[in-house]
Amino acid sequence: MKIACLGEVMIELSPLSPDTAQIGVAGDTYNTAVYLKRLLPDLPVSYVTGLGDEAMSARILSALTAEGIDTDLIETRAGMSPGLYMITRDAAGERSFSYWRSAAAARTVFADPCSVTPDALDGFDIVYLSGISLAILPQATRDRLYAWIDGFRARGGRVAFDSNYRPRLWENVETARAQTMEMWRRADVALPSVDDEQELFAETTDEAVLTRLRSAGATFGALKRGALGPVSLADGATFDVTPVTRVVDTTAAGDSFAAGFLAALSQGRDILDCMKTGHAVSATVICHPGAILPRDVALPGV
Known about the structure:
With 302 residues, the chain is of the alpha/beta class. The chain has nine helices and twelve strands. It has helices at residues 28-39, 55-66, 131-135, 139-154, 173-184, 194-201, 206-216, 253-266, 271-285; strands spanning 3-6, 10-17, 20-26, 45-51, 74-76, 83-89, 95-100, 126-130, 158-162, 189-190, 222-223, 231-232. The strands form three sheets. The chain has a six-stranded parallel sheet, sandwiched between helices. A four-stranded mixed sheet has the order 3-2-6-7. Helix 1 crosses helix 8. The protein starts with a strand and ends in a 17-residue tail after the last helix. The mean pLDDT is 94.
């Protein structure tokens, strides 16, 4: 099994005090790639994005390499740089973000001229992307990607998707809804978060979200519901969850769930085991600050 994660990697500033911040590397699908590789070191994981040719891009490449993630499918854009964001957290560990990413090199992925095209992903078994991966791309590139996905799936490949709705990245809510539904119709593995879906589609119940997703064809995967635990899109199955007693930072909660779910799936585990693994990984991650745990923090087994 080989998995490719498509999206944007950014420089992360995580405040340590009112006047100091820790510099890290993060981004939703990047976070998933890192945790996938840590969970299953022998699993081939590649990252697909655009970076610049300056110091912060080199820092990102070094971080990817240090995690054992393949970087052969990263486009280098001369004179460009990655995006930047800063985390702020409230007393309950909930986070908000300030972004500087409008000119990020990741926005040019698959754009001509390019050395990396969607066809370069043909050799993978699963391609994972998110709503953020879509939102940063121009519509022409999205359409090119959808056309490739249709062929990839027809050839036996599988696509995993998490909507990760970020309103400020999209042209407008109508476009965000339309493009997200384009992907739910193509998602072989659907990993939505209930809060994102309710915000984007103005729904108020879990059942409304589940009904819409299933009607679109997203019938395998899990609806993430935070402390309530996930629910299977296929049959509504759930399991008893143990509440996390001290949430430090919910950054990467959904991303790490996706990593656990996909890691278990790659090992041939059933849907319930996939959900349990995803939840266990996420419950570990939210007990620590920042998107990426120190390497000496143990993750649950797969």
